Amino acid sequence: MSWEAWHLSSCVLALWPPFIKDRSKANALPMKSKKASSFHEFARNTSDAWDIGDDEDEDFSSSSSSLQTLNSKVAKATAAQVLENHSKLRAKPERAQSLTVARRARWGWRGADSFPTSPQHLLLAEEACVRTALQKQQSLPLRPVIPLVARISDQNASGAPPMTVREKTRLEKFRQLLSSHNTDLDELRKCSWPGVPREVRPVTWRLLSGYLPANMERRKLTLQRKREEYFGFIQQYYDSRNEEHHQDTYRQIHIDIPRTNPLIPLFQQPLVQEIFERILFIWAIRHPASGYVQGINDLVTPFFVVFLSEYVEEDVENFDVTNLSQDVLRSIEADSFWCMSKLLDGIQDNYTFAQPGIQKKVKALEELVSRIDEQVHNHFRKYEVEYLQFAFRWMNNLLMRELPLRCTIRLWDTYQSEPEGFSHFHLYVCAAFLIKWRKEILDEEDFQGLLMLLQNLPTIHWGNEEIGLLLAEAYRLKYMFADAPNHYRR
């Protein structure tokens, strides 16, 4: 993706779908944004760059026609604010630099995955943004290209130091645990909490997710049986994707797959996309209570990369999967399906009708932040920023769109080691992640600036060191509040 496209993406910040329909009335709206009246209202009034040029935004809870009519005041007010800001930018070019290019240079950029960038949105933003983009392009500092997935997945973003004595000792400890007749899963979790070495991560993840048994002798037969079972589902169900009652599900999956980590070449390969389509469709068919929900597609990618790394020594990010045998690809596909299924079993209320799990988690995050950093909480209230406006995605995608994939993989080492890591510990990680940016949050003094920051946090250069500090803070918060929930309730 070109820099100009990135910049145009940033310029359509907060241009939500209702703005497209009501542009002529936007300037007449009051500038005070109002709290969304319901979860569905916000979810259906917002989208991101993964919603490109299609009309599936009605998918969100579309199974019921009894949903409330949308109250779009939040979106309209934000759009009106953007229009006003754009008019100021045209009058003051130096202000344009401070709001767009300078902010991007300061924060960094992790891809167009924050707000909608459909052709219609881009056309509306182009007049206000394209001149500034072209004028400032040459003045932007060059950034080093850092792999998003592979070589640095087990090290800091700053380089690739040789394995230390401590790391060699840890690796040997893992190998001893994994090769024992009956792996001590409690000890394996304890060793995995601070991160799993790349060499043993695939088998460790299979064990921690509950996919493989602890008994060494049963593992080979279990893998063979579960892989055959998965491809039995393919034979039984996959042709039904063309049937009328499954067409909407398959269509949404087919639309979402190309958007899955669009900046990583691995996931743009047709063969990989076909694998993801099968995994997601079979999961949806076997879980009719929720079916497929946008965001689940993201949750396949860490498993796929980890199980692929078992067969690939070089840079996974650019690896051509057609170089692998059919048997290897089938093994990676089946293992990714089963481990993703195990993960979703623990957080399925995030994806059932009305997504009650996410509603509860966002509310719990708001209560927690109000107690641990009242200044940040009051800052959001002052500028009428609702937690749902940024934290919905944090819960729906488990921070995957806020972090490089290498960091997500490291984060999931701990999540799979922690009791209820994906369903419970994630709340404290989100709180620690939010407070990490308290200075930048408090420096922003308008609704648009806060949303722009929270939707594009500068984590592109993060590595294991940053994730380790984040997890340590999350553990501290959990220790303080998890067993005394009244501490974070007013």
UniProtKB/TrEMBL annotation:
A GO term, aspect molecular function: GTPase activator activity
Location of the Rab-GAP TBC domain: 195-419
Pfam family, one: RabGAP-TBC
Highest taxon, organism lineage: Eukaryota
Keyword tags: GTPase activation
Keyword set includes Oxidoreductase: no
The name this protein goes by in its record: Rab-GAP TBC domain-containing protein
Native source organism of the sequence: Strix occidentalis caurina
